User: Fold this.
Amino acid sequence: MNPNPMHPMHPMNIVFASHTYMGGPFVVGSHHLAREMKRLGHRVIHMSTPLSPMHLLKYKDRDIRERIRIYRGGVEEQPDQAVNSVPMSLLPWELAGPIYARTGKNWTLPRMKRLLRSQGMDRVDLLLIDQPRFAGLDRIVNPAVTVYRPTDLYAQMTGDRSIKAAEAAIMARAHGLVSTSEPVLDELRPYNPALPSLLLENGVEYAHFAQGGDEPEDMRSIPGPRAVYVGALDGRLDLGALRKLADAWPELGLVVIGPYDEATAAVFAGRPNVHLLGPKKYKDVPKYLHHADVALLPLSDHAANKGRSPMKLYEYAAAGLPVVVTETPELLRREEPFLYFYRHADEFPGKVRDAVSAKHGRERIRAMAERHAWDAKARKLLEFADGLRRTASSKEGTLNHELA
Assistant:
């Protein structure tokens, strides 16, 4: 009897094809899932969006330099982490995407044989594609099971028509679909309605965020109560709502953590209660959360927010913080008691006051977050993939029998 390769006792070869490299300013779901699968005893390669020779023109950009460093090193591996790989391709997607939409040939796909051979992978049992720009990678890797795991409404988020072509191609060949939110699932199902699917929301590295630490030095001079936002300061964040909060509650210390530019700083000019602390290392973020009173996630009207499954919700909650967030159908569906919803920016300051004055108890909020720990998410994903493998094997066996 052949052993079940999805069972933890039988290590699998797993490849993640993700949009975000490991070691940068943002830690995403594929990083956590790759780590947890490695802890379960599987061999895991985490590969992110390829570089191209044209990226060398942007060498002054810190992220580009870091990705180039990882590429030149081949792979990075730490005892508790998956293999970290940033590949190189011939063309950037900005040029290759339109070509792909017309011809179906993807010039961004990396060469894989050397990487797989270096990790002792004579086969790939499970390929998880988070980044649609990797369309066609399954033909190179030839995995036993391919799962498409979109984390956003990519086509709406980017406005890139070639992404739709890539997603259609992936969905036509994948064995299964795993989505982090219901809107994303509903958006992609029409590409292949019969494809098995799983709704698996983003989770939290619970033990990391549940433990705090000493108050960070750059927080000590900020008076309380303190409201905190951690993450990207891009078009998906409602900076106007944050400014309105700062104006409505001058005594509130508004702490904003994440990379920002001069234009973002100008939004908060003349507001001494807004503290732009810049990016912080992932390992240090819990310290900031544990010394705040409420967490914030004001979402803009960007189309991509409809399908978001924000990891920070459960990261905030694991630190015991109530969260004030813009109302979306996806987040309302979850019915989490620690979430305070608002529809319009004018309602935002009042909801923040309500959350600060409420007496939930931090331990109670932490308990709500613990249900979404990444280790449980990884096991559920592997169980789903195992079901796909069994189905694929059964169909192959039936076909071979008919051909015989």
